[in-house]
């Protein structure tokens, strides 16, 4: 197992490097960089995209067009040159890329262009929202989908299986943002009941400070109920059907018929023999599912419930061309994603020691 782990760890470096190269190269052709943003704001146009008609200057050519920025002819060249030096755009793209990667190797992710705060500090500031949505959504999905999938497999073809399949498909077909709006209308004072709050992760600071420890826990759970439900609804279908199909595959194998022939109870056969094999693919994929939900925070869900998480952070950084935030988070999340892939493989071995990655080609 150790040689396999070392090979996978060695592959992380070129894979991560390739991810950064591709994204950095693509960004060079996107119209409107940080300097264009500043120019647009100084000239009172609000956002750089309001001044682009389709043929904008690109960041790689580098943010410039014939030694001047679009719309910047009224600004002194010395001021533009100073902005270039501050943002590092006075250097060639290749030099900027390798300088950025060298800083990342030293865990220096820089400072946001427009927020005057370190990238990692900014990520840690937004992380409670993403942890809330990612952790609770994943746990609820697993706690509901696994028992439901087992029940559907045992009752395959029954009326229960048919009706639950219909309900699951309908839930999967409803977009998360539409379900979130429905929850707001029904339970957050939209048109019917005012049961849950419609915004925030907790109550206001004044109210929060006066609550007891138990009161703070209840207040937190009260606030996250609707956004967690909205972000979880679409996860039920895939996980439930995956569990059902895994159980059906195992139930039809010869070792199950042998166990039944020996007189074992159906419960003993199901949970003593089938469960471990059927749950291999479901449980081993837990780290990847959690990280996928965690780092892929729903921008729309966060916006609807006024939650300031990593989803909104990524969107705002892309719109503002805040490159340190964009590339710093991409590097960190890409690294974590690759490590989680390795952890998922190790979980397969932990759940089923019969799996041997030593003979697997990497």
Automatic annotation (TrEMBL):
Entry GO CC: plasma membrane
Highest taxon above the source species: Bacteria
Parts of the chain that traverse the membrane: 9-30, 129-151, 163-188, 220-243, 278-305, 325-351
Question: What membrane topology term does the record carry?
Answer: Multi-pass membrane protein
- What Pfam families does this protein map onto? BPD_transp_1 (PF00528)
Keyword Metal-binding included in the entry's annotation? no
The residues covered by the ABC transmembrane type-1 domain are 127-348
Q: Where in the cell is it found?
A: Cell inner membrane; Cell membrane
Is Transmembrane helix a UniProt keyword of this protein? yes
Classification via InterPro entries: MetI-like, MetI-like_sf
Keywords, A to Z? Cell inner membrane, Cell membrane, Membrane, Transmembrane, Transmembrane helix, Transport
Query: What processes in GO biological process is this protein linked to?
Result: microcin transport; transmembrane transport
Identify the CDD domains for this entry: TM_PBP2 (cd06261)
The text of the family note is: Belongs to the binding-protein-dependent transport system permease family.
- In Swiss-Prot or TrEMBL terms, this protein is called Microcin C ABC transporter permease YejB
Gene source species: Rhabdonatronobacter sediminivivens
């Amino acid at each position: 197992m150790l040689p396999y782990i070392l090979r996978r760890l060695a592959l992380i470096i070129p894979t991560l490097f390739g991810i950064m190269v591709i994204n950095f190269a693509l960004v060079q052709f996107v119209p409107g960089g940080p300097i264009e943003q500043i120019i647009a704001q100084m000239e009172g146009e609000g956002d750089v995209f309001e001044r682009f008609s389709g043929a904008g200057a690109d960041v790689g050519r580098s943010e410039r067009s014939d030694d001047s920025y679009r719309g910047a002819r009224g600004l002194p060249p010395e001021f533009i040159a100073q902005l270039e030096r501050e943002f590092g755009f006075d250097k060639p793209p290749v030099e900027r890329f390798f300088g950025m990667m060298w800083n990342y190797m030293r865990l220096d992710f820089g400072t946001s262009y427009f927020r005057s705060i370190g990238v990692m500090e900014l990520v840690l500031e937004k992380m409670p929202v993403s942890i809330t949505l990612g952790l609770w959504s994943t746990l609820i999905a697993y706690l509901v989908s696994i028992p439901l999938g087992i029940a559907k497999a045992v009752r395959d073809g029954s009326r229960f299986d048919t009706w639950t399949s219909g309900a699951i498909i309908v839930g999967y077909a409803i977009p998360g943002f539409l379900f979130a709006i429905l929850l707001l209308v029904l339970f957050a004072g939209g048109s019917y009941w005012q049961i849950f709050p419609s915004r925030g992760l907790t109550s206001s600071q004044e109210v929060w400070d006066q609550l007891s420890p138990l009161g703070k826990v209840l207040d937190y759970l009260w606030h996250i109920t609707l956004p967690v439900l909205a972000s979880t609804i679409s996860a039920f279908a895939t996980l439930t059907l995956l569990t059902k199909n895994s159980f059906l595959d195992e139930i039809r194998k010869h070792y199950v018929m042998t166990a039944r022939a020996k007189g074992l109870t159906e419960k003993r056969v199901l949970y003593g023999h089938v469960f471990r094999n059927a749950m291999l693919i479901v449980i081993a994929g837990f780290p990847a599912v959690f990280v996928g939900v965690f780092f892929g925070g729903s921008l729309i869900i966060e916006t609807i419930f006024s939650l300031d998480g990593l989803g909104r952070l990524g969107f705002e950084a892309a719109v503002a061309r805040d490159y340190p935030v964009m590339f710093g988070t991409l590097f960190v999340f890409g690294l974590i994603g690759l490590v989680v892939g390795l952890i998922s493989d190790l979980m397969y071995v932990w759940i089923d020691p019969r799996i041997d990655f030593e003979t697997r080609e990497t």
